[in-house]
Specification:
Number of domains: 1
Shape: globular
Number of helices: 11
Strand order of the largest sheet: 1-2
Helix content: over 70%
Oligomer: single chain
Low-confidence stretches: 1-13
Distance between the termini: 19 Å
Order of helices and strands: EHHHHHHHHHEHH
Structural class: mainly alpha
Strand content: under 5%
């Protein structure tokens, strides 16, 4: 998501809490029809996480859970947006309903992505080499969490939550005014701030928790999103926006 349309820069007026909830898996900016169902699913999923935390934070289960989420998230997203998944959904339900279903499913995966990294960090805390001073891990971790969270929110606000949820890719065409591509906000000086600097918070959390395995999982999830970008998203951008 390193490029955005002119319409996105004009219409992005989300409040920061709405953006934060949106990138966490709960969209409150999309009408009212599906809002109660989204909110209920979000609350029930969060409650389930809480109840299962004692099990999920054991090292073996945390590792298996993170691997499963990685496969479901990046594999499912690639098959849906880069394969026959979206066309099958649209043929079955129509564009609007199909996108609503996809959007809810993707929101659940967003939640699981964050929680999977959290349980690995918790399960493998205090595993950094003893040579790394605690003060350095805390300082670097706090800085990375602050920078990463700032860039993730800034990029999501600039591009819009529809872009964050890959709505144009799901529809198979540019949404809104696609007459030109513009660079704004963090995209003015970073090609892909959402996937790059926006993921620094995961490394920061791992450092703060002194988790070597947490750093590895953060890297694995960032690698996954870049694979998705190069294999699915970038070809779509070049086809739909760049090539006239």
């Amino acid at each position: 998501m390193h490029t955005i349309t002119a319409a996105a820069t004009r219409t992005t007026a989300w409040r920061w809490p709405v953006i934060l909830l949106g990138i966490s898996g709960l969209r409150l900016d999309r009408g009212t029809r599906y809002r109660p169902a989204r909110l209920l699913l979000f609350v029930l999923t969060a409650a389930l996480y809480y109840l299962l935390t004692p099990v999920l934070t054991t090292p073996a289960v945390a590792t298996a859970y993170a691997a499963t989420v990685w496969l479901l998230y990046y594999g499912g997203l690639s098959l849906t947006l880069g394969g026959p998944g979206r066309t099958a959904l649209i043929a079955r339900f129509g564009e609007d309903r199909a996108y609503a279903l996809y959007e809810v499913a993707l929101g659940v995966l967003f939640m699981n992505q964050g929680f999977a990294q959290a349980v690995v960090i918790y399960a493998y805390g205090d595993s950094l080499p003893a040579a790394v001073p605690s003060w350095a891990a805390y300082a670097a971790g706090a800085a990375l969490m602050a920078v990463g969270t700032f860039y993730k929110l800034w990029a999501a606000r600039t591009a819009g939550l529809d872009t964050y949820y890959c709505r144009d890719m799901f529809m198979g065409r540019p949404i809104g005014d696609a007459s030109e591509l513009v660079v704004a906000g963090p995209y003015r000086h970073l090609r892909n701030p959402m996937y790059g600097a926006g993921n620094l918070h995961a490394y920061g959390w791992a450092l703060w928790s002194h988790s070597l395995e947490g750093l590895a999982v953060a890297a694995a999830f960032q690698l996954g999103i870049y694979l998705f970008y190069h294999l699915c998203e970038r070809p779509f951008i070049e086809r739909a926006y760049v090539r006239k």
